[in-house]
Design goal:
seven-stranded parallel β-sheet, Rossmann fold, 11 strands, alpha/beta, 301 residues
Length: 301
């Protein structure tokens, strides 16, 4: 049996690099798409492809003959225009190229931020209400990417929806960027202590992405057992419960500063990941281990 060929955009990013590593462990041939020469992970089966996935010619060449495409790129910062140009328009270029090339499977790393998590929302499943147009650039644009991929016909599409992604790295929002803001600004130390901090570790997210992309989780006619063949299937990817008291408390303790706990209504539900668990996925990284890793990294900021 030949190894599957999987294209990964953003292969040197926090999520992309872990997906590449998980695919390499599974014996896949990985076309790692990066913007800079030498940026792709140096792992068995990994081929570096340098270029802009938003360029139709490059996109068409890199997906030709592939078995799956995994898209992981969304700008870390920038205004709404930049996020939409790269995260939405660029993703649709490479996704459309994959459909035209006959790639049978597309796995897109979305976000649980597309869901309405207002104080009264309660637990959130894949059928829950999505955010409105006033939710902010990131959530709205990611919502719009999901909707565009849902309209894209001709391949099986899977939308992975993780909440806060924990894991070390210079580009890690929750292990590096947010803690740096808490360090530098008293305003960033404010939080509602009982508000839910929904999370998943990047290695657990990568496992699900790799298992879907390589067919270890097979397509199905029943969403409870796998992605629906030829359709677009969202799936939440979340670990156990935690609160802002847990997260902000860990970061401020590591920094040696005091948190500021605010009163007020807050979302206290959970991101329900029963669908992913029905597919055989189970997170391995515990809250204690994830936060110990977080605290150790924050102490080095």
């Amino acid at each position: 049996m030949t190894s599957p060929i999987v294209v990964v955009t953003g292969a040197n990013g926090l999520v992309g690099s872990h997906v590449v590593a998980a695919l390499s462990e599974r014996g896949a041939t990985v076309r790692a798409v990066v913007r800079r020469l030498g940026a792709a992970p140096d792992l068995p089966g990994v081929e570096e492809h340098v270029g802009d996935f938003a360029d139709p010619a490059f996109a068409g060449s890199v997906v030709a003959g592939a078995d799956a495409l995994v898209t992981t790129v969304h700008p870390l910062g920038g205004d709404g225009e930049a996020q939409r140009r790269v995260g939405l328009d660029g993703t649709l270029v490479v996704a459309s190229a994959a459909v035209e090339a006959g790639v049978p499977l597309l796995v897109h790393v979305s976000t649980a931020a597309v869901y309405d998590r207002s104080p009264s929302a309660g637990d959130v499943s894949e059928e829950s209400a999505l955010v409105g147009d006033d939710a902010g650039d990131y959530a709205v644009i990611k919502r719009d990417v999901d909707a565009a991929l849902a309209r894209l016909q001709g391949t099986t599409r899977v939308l992975l929806r993780p909440p806060a992604i924990l894991g070390p790295g210079a580009s890690s929002v929750w292990n590096s960027v947010v803690p740096a803001g808490i360090r530098d600004s008293e305003q960033q130390r404010h939080a509602q202590p009982d508000k839910t901090f929904a999370w998943v570790h990047v290695t657990d997210l990568a496992v699900l992405a790799a298992d879907v992309a390589t067919g270890a989780i097979a397509v199905s006619s029943d969403v409870s057992s796998g992605p629906v063949s030829g359709d677009c299937t969202p799936v939440n990817v979340a670990s156990g419960p935690a609160t802002q008291r847990d997260y902000v408390g860990t970061v401020t303790r590591a920094l040696g500063v005091d948190p500021v706990w605010d009163d007020g209504d807050a979302w206290t539900g959970q991101i329900v990941a029963d669908r992913a668990r029905g597919w055989g996925w189970a997170p391995k990284v515990s809250l204690a281990d994830a936060f110990a890793e977080l605290e150790a990294g924050v102490r080095e900021l």
